[in-house]
Amino acid sequence: MSADDTALNAPAAFDLLAARDLLGVSLPTADGGLGRTFVEECLLLEETSRTGVPIMAYSTALTAAQSYLRFGDATQRATIVSSLRAGKAESIAFTEPEAGSDLASAQTRAVRTSRGWSITGRKTWISFAHVASHILVLARTDVSGRRHDGLTLLMVPADAPGLDVRPIETMGAHIANDVVLTDVQVPADAVVGQVGEAWRHLGRGLAVERVIIGGMAVGAAQRAIDQLIAHVTGRVQFGRPISSNQAVAHRIADLAADVAVCRSFVYDVADRIDHGEEDHLNAEASMVKLKASEMLKHTALEAVQLMGGYGYGSEWGWSSSSAWPSPRRSTGARTRSSARSSPGASASDTASSRRLHLRRARHATHVLRNRLCAHDERGGGEGGGSQLTAPPIDPTTVSRGMPDASRRDSVSGSFRTPPSAATANAGATPTQATDRESSPFRRA
Ligand SMILES: Cc1cc2nc3c(=O)[nH]c(=O)nc-3n(C[C@H](O)[C@H](O)[C@H](O)COP(=O)(O)OP(=O)(O)OC[C@H]3O[C@@H](n4cnc5c(N)ncnc54)[C@H](O)[C@@H]3O)c2cc1C
Fold it and tell me: Could you report the per-residue pLDDT of 5-28, keeping only the tens digit for each?
């Protein structure tokens, strides 16, 4: 991973969340996952997005995992679950230069050999292939039938000989890649699902993928609002904070309402997925993805506008080249010299980035734990995910950029090993005790 990539995917953040059993929470226990609900997975996605934890590849890996879990064999499922749980990236390679929206035009070929399959072709726009452990490749295994037939999914190790990953230059950070496959050899058991059945396989399970994006969009929009409020309450013009102008406050209230509506929608559909309705939620899940992503776009643009010139500055890190808003500053006085980062990451930059990533990951686990706790106290998924609410906005927390540092080492949220309050608190400092009392496992 290059220095630039750590703004999107920081190994330190992955390690911390993996060590706390927070990755792959919704994956089945039979395959090595934690077997918790998709609502809880969405909480993780929302809070890591909101708090700016750089684990962007996680959502792609989670999406890839759905195909393996639904159609893969036991070995493939266990491999992918363990990869996700350890904080490793997984990639999906469907799109080709001539097959975007029209995926059935895919031309990448997989030809049978005496030992398995030989794959040759070119994939494009493949997210995180440059850091992935495996790539789920859509290939044509039969050219004789209709174009929707004869397509097959194959699990390809990302370091297989003949597989070449080339970054695509974009207006943003390095996410996407061309993946060129030249006579890549995989064994017969690399097929995921049935040979020739990929089209029908891909038609299923899209609800989860769409809601994953919805959860992340809600978190990112909430972050924009948190930061916007921090700015407008501190920014003084004409002798008073600009937030005291109703024209400003009304617009922020509208944004907050939009986020709340989308949040309810995301958790409602997530809850229905948990209740086994996934295959009947194509329309609703598509609406979630559409509305949540449009809401995020609108919220981000409004936030930039309402912050005036400061919204255009790089301090908040809302540009597409920086994955998440920066916590450097809050309001009023500019600290331009300290706010600008150099393009090349020096050793101390890297160390401070790592500290920042860890701090964000700890903060996310802290907030997440509190929301899980609230969720459990309301009876978990019963009654619908719409009961889930984000914590109230605290401009002072936002203005500090990150939460109380004194709490940072006391976050012990773990899905796997719920400590009883009594055991966990033995010998703990007062702060630690408070943190542990609100374990996500404290059930009513
Ligand atoms: C950042 C990024 C990451 C990506 N990650 C992945 C990945 O991990 N794996 C992967 O396989 N792919 C990935 N993609 C590819 C993505 O899935 C495709 O970009 C998408 O499917 C659209 O294909 P296209 O870009 O070829 O657009 P096109 O198919 O050329 O479409 C261009 C425009 O025409 C419109 N259009 C096309 N057909 C019609 C029609 N019949 N009626 C009306 N409008 C139409 C489209 O809606 C679109 O607005 C990624 C793309 C991006 C930008």
Answer: 677 899 999 999 999 989 999 999
- Residues 188 and 216 occupy one common structural domain: no
Q: Which residue's structure tokens are 């908040």?
A: 316
Q: Indicate the number of domains in the chain.
A: 2
Tell the burial category of 17 from Cβ atoms under 10 Å away from its Cβ (0-12, 13-18, 19+).
buried
Beta-bridge partner residues of 236: 241
The closest-lying atom of ligand 1 relative to the alpha carbon of residue 102 is 29
- Using only the alpha carbons of the chain, give its radius of gyration: 23
SS3 label, residue 111? strand
Q: What's the distance, CA 173 to chain centroid?
A: 16
Q: Are 288 and 391 found together in one domain?
A: yes
Query: Are the CB atoms for 200 and 156 separated by under 8 Å?
Result: no
* Lowest mean pLDDT segment, chosen from 34-43, 285-294, 426-435: 426-435
Residue 57: half-sphere exposure toward Cβ, Cα within 13 Å? 34
Q: Is residue 236 helix, strand or coil?
A: strand
Tokens 């194959």 -> residue = 154
Query: Which residues does a 6 A CB cutoff place in the pocket of ligand 1?
Result: 60, 92-95, 100-101, 125-127, 175-176
Q: How far is residue 36 from each of residues 24, 33, 98, 220, measured CA to CA in Å?
A: 9, 8, 39, 23
Residues 143 and 239 both lie in one domain: no
pTM of the predicted protein model: 0.81
Give, using CA atoms, the residue closest to atom 37 of ligand 1. Answer: 101
The pLDDT tens digits of the residues spanning 85-104 come to: 999 999 999 999 999 999 99
What's the per-residue H, E or C state across 29-87?
A: HHHCCCCCCHHHHHHHHHHHHHHCCCECHHHHHHHHHHHHHHHCCHHHHHHHHHHHHCC
Which of 89, 77, 91, 93 lies closest to 23 in space, CA to CA?
89
Reported in sequence order, the residue ranges of 267-403 that DSSP labels E, i.e. its strands, are: none
Nearest atom in ligand 1 to 170's CA:
1
- Same domain as 319, residue 188: no
Would you state the pLDDT for residue 109?
Answer: 98
- If one compares 113 and 364, the residue with the highest pLDDT of the two is 113
d(Cα 273, Cα 207) in Å, to the nearest integer?
Answer: 8
Q: Whose C-alpha lies nearest to ligand 1, atom 12?
A: 95
- How far away, in angstroms, is 99 Cα from ligand 1 center? 8
